[in-house]
Automatic annotation (TrEMBL):
Domain Protein kinase stretches: 16-302
Name of the protein this chain belongs to: Protein kinase domain-containing protein
Entry binding sites for ATP: 45
Region (Disordered): 298-323
InterPro entries: CK1_Ser-Thr_kinase, Kinase-like_dom_sf, Prot_kinase_dom, Protein_kinase_ATP_BS
PANTHER family: CASEIN KINASE-RELATED
Gene Ontology terms for molecular function: ATP binding; protein kinase activity
Lineage: Eukaryota, Fungi, Dikarya, Basidiomycota, Agaricomycotina
Key words of the record: ATP-binding, Nucleotide-binding
Domain of life of the organism encoding this protein: Eukaryota
Amino acid sequence: MSHSNNPPIPRYLGNWCLGRILGSGYSGSIFEAQHVHTGQVVALKVQHVDHECLTNRYERYLYPLLQGGLGMPTLWASGVQGVWDYLAIDLLGASLDNLYRQLGGPAVPLDLGSVCCIAMQVIARLECMHARGVLHRDIQLGNTVVGRDSYSRTLYMIDFGFSKRYIDPRTRRHIPDSKEKRDFIGNYWFSSVNVHCRGKVPSRRDDLEAAALMFIHLLTPRGLSWTRNGVPKTDAAHRVLKNQKRKARPEDLCRGLPAEFEEFLRYCRSLSFAEQPDYARWIEEFRELKVEEGYGDSDEFIWPPPNPQKRPEATPRRTRTPGVVAPDAMESILNGLTNLDLDRTGVRQVLGDRKNVEEAVRQARANLKDDSTATREVIEISSDSEGCSVDVVLVPKAKRLAKLTARASDATNNAALSSLVREFLEVMKCNSSRALTKDGFAFLDALYKQLEDPSVFVAPMRTSRPRSDIQKAEVKDPSYVKLGAVARLKREVGTARSNKEMAAMVAEFGKVTNNSTGRTITKDGFAFFEGLADRLMALQ
Ligand SMILES: Nc1ncnc2c1ncn2[C@@H]1O[C@H](COP(=O)(O)OP(=O)(O)OP(=O)(O)O)[C@@H](O)[C@H]1O
């Protein structure tokens, strides 16, 4: 319906006296308003009842599902008066869109510290919404706003006009997927490729992918490439935009950004339709990135952005430049393959006592046996420098770690252990996830055992309990516990005087990593293992 003939919005709606306009969207306007009796100040979302997209009608049913969650606005009242439908919700502050533009965006990107805070908070908001069975489906800068007063460092999600329950309240089941192409719901800039370009049914993964694109947009000078020509005005222009979005590879979108952003985007795209995302892991990843870059570990969104507390260390950050396999990375992949020597029956045992080979090693060997029947994983790696593509056989991370674990139990001296530690580092670095999986812990167990006393049985540092059990049973340490301990280990490993001392360090590393939410190896963690490999050579 056309709005030009709408009657003017009255000064009073229900018990609310309308004040200044806060913003307007496609379906209506938002006003600051005050309760005539209590004086309470709210944001009043006003829409014409005949509007073709009367989102208030949906929102009033969704708000109650979200009440009480951090960063979820409260719905105080709602009603219809004459032709006006209104919702009275918490009055909040500026949107990220406003703040970003104030600072010069998109010409000027946002600082990494702020984007990490945004990432931690937005992922947590999505976790909260999803836990209550609701998808947002319209994640964008204009729908992410800061709170007021004591909540001015908290981000809120607003605009649930496109939101939907993805858990059927009757059956308690996830909504079904569909092969049929559906009309697009969301926004041009950040809606996921599956939803926007392929017409798929939105699910939790798509909220997260939209968030990932939003983070990348904020960090990219001039923003995501498909946003640069403005909102498409014709169907043809919209088709061009969708094409551009569909073709943009994560490695191109994230060139020059810290690896976490590309990894997060890839992770979102790897989720299956009904899969539950690992929110905690990614909140922890962005927290660690923030700490590593000198911005501290808080997720509070401080505006204007403060300067980093310390400059980033000289070691270059791990940015990803996939698409091009660097010659040394390719060499390490191929070396890794040729080093996978399974026939070690004649190796003399010096450090280890074969009778006491621990559970982790037995497990690793069992995994190796299973591998003989496993299919090879072929991954295509294209090179944009040459405009060609090469096929490379990559051994999956788990398999390579299992082989390293088995070899660790057979190591005959410190030099052999040192080279195994270096191979372990290679595996962890060339993989898109730096999370220490149970295979990684098994390697640490084997290494610890060799360093400490191979004749004593050592309880594994991490068991392979199902993740749900682990989450129930464990109270995670705050990230600074792990970060502080690993930084100390990195400093101290260079002066370790014996294998026993190094064993204790490996054990401590395993313990703090197992107790942290993300179980990722940080930059300091990598430096610790590098130091350990050096020290093992020095103490031969
Ligand atoms: N609770 C609030 N407190 C303060 N400002 C708000 C609040 N809700 C919305 N706004 C402002 O109004 C703008 C539009 O709000 P909202 O997105 O909810 O409306 P909409 O009509 O659904 O918009 P669109 O059609 O663009 O999706 C927001 O970007 C924000 O700047």
